[in-house]
Amino acid sequence: MPRRSRGDDGRGDLVESPEPAGRKPDREEKRVTHGRDTSGRPTAMRYVTKGNRMPTGRKPDGDQAMSNAERQARYRARHPAVLPTTSIIPRPNRPLDRRSRPKRWREAVAELLTLQAEYADGLEALPEGLHDSPTAQALEAIVELDLDSLADIDPPRGYGRD
User: What does the pLDDT read at residue 92?
Assistant: First the structure.
């Protein structure tokens, strides 16, 4: 049965869609009604092909479509992780230390000497009841370290600049 739809001109277009049993129609006859002759019949007619539709997507395997997590798991199973074949090892993004190695050595030794002096002060301030505790033993081991020998070392400048 023909159905009516409204066009831009307000009078409406007549669309006929004959549907044979078991098949979808490939073509649909559309009569454009912008022009009518004196007897009221339409003067223009065109044919529209509906067979060139976009193909439908993949049908779900089960009763429902897959969730995003299931779809991602299926993708990862099909595409195994590719290991880099080159020997490039990514380095962490850390700020570059522009100081020379000898300067860094001197600053590290100075920091160790400062910490050793602070631990010695902490050992002297320790109460009498804690002199035999593991904390006191650890502080004594730090204080007894000979860090002056580290301070006496002058590291090489390197690259023939010694």
Answer: 76
